[in-house]
User: Fold this.
Amino acid sequence: MNSRSTNVDTRSVRQRILDTALQEFFDFGFHAATLRNIAKSAGCSAANVYNHFENKDEILVEILRAASDEQFTATRNAIRKAGASPSAQWAAAVEAHALYTASNAQACLVANTELRYLDEVDRKRVVGSRDAQEHQFIAIAEAGVNCGEFVIPLVHQAVTAVLTMCSGIALWYRDDGPLSAREVAKSYGQYGLNLVGYRPA
Assistant:
């Protein structure tokens, strides 16, 4: 077996462990999930899990950090494509945030419920991307207020309300439901504009 094949196989095992762990955390919660069950469901030995991760906490950190980074990047890219208008950027940001949540409901729900189990150091590794995501929204909201497109008495409170609204999608959205993830995201973009008192010119 050449080195390239070995690298592919290693990544496959690592990703399988992460995917299985996410399902375990979603089904049973972080506290009840065990490395033994994660290894069994991933089709590998517990020793193999330890080849990739030091402990269960590190697996959770990797899952949450990846989800936060991906959501931040998706939102940032949507903002860049939206143009210069704060209202267009805001709608695009909310849609991207909502779309990621609907498309990755398990990861987002685990992120919202299981973060509390991490110690302070590991928690900081995860919340950095969350803070950056929030700052994107704050910057747009402040720009909207300054140019008169938005009417928001308290910018930070409005941003928290919108992000909390979007995070709730993970609680109810299902792929086999009446609306697609993109349809849900589009409607949430409009809700987001309503929450900041958007006034079309």
In short: Confidence is low (pLDDT under 50) at residues 1-9. The CA atoms of residues 148 and 199 lie 8 Å apart.
